Structures are given as structure tokens and as C-alpha cells.
Amino acid sequence: MFTFIMTLSLFIIAISTALYLYRLIKGPSTPDRVIALDAIGINLIGITAITLIVLNTNAFVEVILLISILAFIGTVAFAKFLEKGEIIENDRDQ
What is the rounded distance in angstroms from the CA atom of residue 88 to the CA atom of residue 44? Predict the structure, then answer.
């Protein structure tokens, strides 16, 4: 029963990721695409965590941390781009 529930949850998260991928490609605006990209990162974390539970190992804990850090940095970079129009500011006020 536990294996069935885990397989079902992986299937549901995979469908959710596919729908977010559609929103990432066809999104009507840039903020919609940013939210879809962030949600895909969260779904990847969930897929990795469920795989970690099913395989009964701790090998993927670092992968979860890496994906979460990259998703956070990507979200912050896109938010800064949407706000100011550039990510890295070359000229600083002195």
C-alpha cells in the first residue's frame, strides 16, 4: 500500500510538472513564466524527496539542497530582472 501511494504521488507530481512546463512555454506574461519555473523547482524537490523515501537512502539529500538553492537564486534573479530590467548592475554609485 505504501509503494502504491508513493507511486501515485510521483505520478501526480509528474503531471503537475508537465502542466507547469506548458505554462512556462505558453505563459501569457513573464511573471507567469517565473512562477511556473519556481514551481517546477519545487516539484523537482518533491520528486527527489519521494524517490529518497522509496529507495530508503540518504544519497539524495545533497541533491535536494542543491536544487532548492538554485531555485531560490533563480527566483531572486528573475524578480530583480522584472523589477529593474537588469540582473547585474555594472555601474555603482560611488
Answer: 27
> Are the C-beta atoms of residues 32 and 48 closer than 8 Å to each other?
no
**Which pTM was predicted?**
0.82
Give start and end residues of each alpha helix (H) in 1-94: 2-26, 30-55, 61-84
CA-wise closest residue to 38 among 57, 62, 20? 20
Q: Grid coordinates 541533491 are at which residue?
A: 63
- Grid cell digits, residue 9: 504521488
Cα gap 11→74, rounded to integer Å: 26
C-alpha cell read off for 49: 524527496
Q: Is a pLDDT exceeding 90 seen at residue 80?
A: no
Q: What is the pLDDT of residue 11?
A: 96
